[in-house]
Amino acid sequence: MSDAAQLRSLTRKLLADHPPAGTGRTDFLKARFDAGLAWVHCPVGLGGLDAPRSLQGVVDAELAASGAPDNDPRRIGIGLGMAAPTILRYGTREQKERFLRPLWTGEEVWCQLFSEPGAGSDLAALATRAVREGGSASGDWIVNGQKVWTSSAHLARWAILIARTDPDLPKHRGITYFLCDMTDPGVEVRPLRQITGEAEFNEVFLTDVRIPDAHRLGEVGEGWKVARTTLMNERVSIGGAPLPREGGMIGPVARTWRERPGLRTHELRQRLLTLWVEAEVARLTGERLRQSLVAGQPGPEGSGLKLAFAGLNQEISGLEVELLGEEGLLYSDWTMRRPELVDFTGRDAGYRYLRSKGNSIEGGTSEVLLNIVAERVLGLPAEPRDDKDVPWKDLTR
């Protein structure tokens, strides 16, 4: 399937067979997935048609024009942007058939159990343990540990999880990747209230959580390799989301500038122009990166885009607060809530300013991303790592 006209015809047939006005939202999304129009580049039977990724826009345009519902991608971003590409690359056929459809339709929300209190920037130092029951080569895994900064854990049905399965190996080599059932009685989710007043993040405690070996993703001990696929896709999904011109954080401050000329100063004008240009460059760079994905999996370039996204958001939100003067110091609502998604543009300037502080931490700290860009994009010498070949159990923690 490589012809835009064929895809357009298939999309119109979907709309004729399942009119959006008379079809329930979930039923329509299931029908779209089964027709191969969810993500057209994926294999037939798994939501796709083995078509070029670039043709997804043909489908999306037809559906948008008809008023068809989408799958609320902001709410299920972790599943779409991180779990799905990892399952597609490393999952068994059974895993793909079980998890991808409800993931895409939004019937099952996903979260990411990676970071730990002692393993954030240095994720490979994680201490959560997974031990095979009875030492059997095919037995269930019993998992104990703690994860932190887990977005959407309070909503999630499933989680992507990395745990240490061999402490005698160096930290990058003794890790295995799992799909964890968040409804297991051994999973406890506690809210973490943030500077915004909300608790979109959580800490998760795992106590004797039983994971069947059928829910292991990839080979035992190769979890870091699998996790790198997740992390590279995560950075693209955070920093490279498709946006129109003046989409994202630059939109509200540009709109305020146009609508309220009394707030303007020469110095603020110069800063706004500079940030507007940088935001547009980042947007177009993201478009180029998405086009390059047609050729395969994302590379380390996504780290550079996510790095730029974090810095821009913080500078733009700071400029907006200054532009608004005393009004910028107001904060509309400090209610403790557990939101389903992060809404940067639908909130006030104070929220944007506070929430953007987390952008340089989530999805890989800016310091770690600078190392990745230096070593894997620019080809600079690697930073010395004395613990690279030391067994994890012998590391100082």
Describe the structure.
- The chain is of the alpha+beta class and 397 residues long.
- It is built from eleven helices and eight strands.
- It has helices at residues 4-17, 25-34, 56-66, 77-90, 93-105, 223-239, 250-259, 266-292, 301-324, 349-355, 366-377; strands at residues 110-113, 129-132, 141-147, 158-164, 175-181, 187-192, 201-211, 216-217.
- A four-stranded mixed β-sheet has the order 1-4-5-8.
- Helix 4 (77-90) packs antiparallel against helix 5 (93-105), helix 4 (77-90) runs antiparallel to helix 6 (223-239) and helix 8 (266-292) runs antiparallel to helix 9.
- The longest helix is centred in the last third of the chain and has 27 residues, at 266-292.
- The model has no long low-confidence stretch (mean pLDDT 91).
Q: Oligomerization state of this entry?
A: single chain
Apparent shape = globular
Return the structural class. alpha+beta
Order of helices and strands: HHHHHEEEEEEEEHHHHHH
Instruction: Please list the strands of the largest sheet in the order they lie side by side.
Output: 1-4-5-8
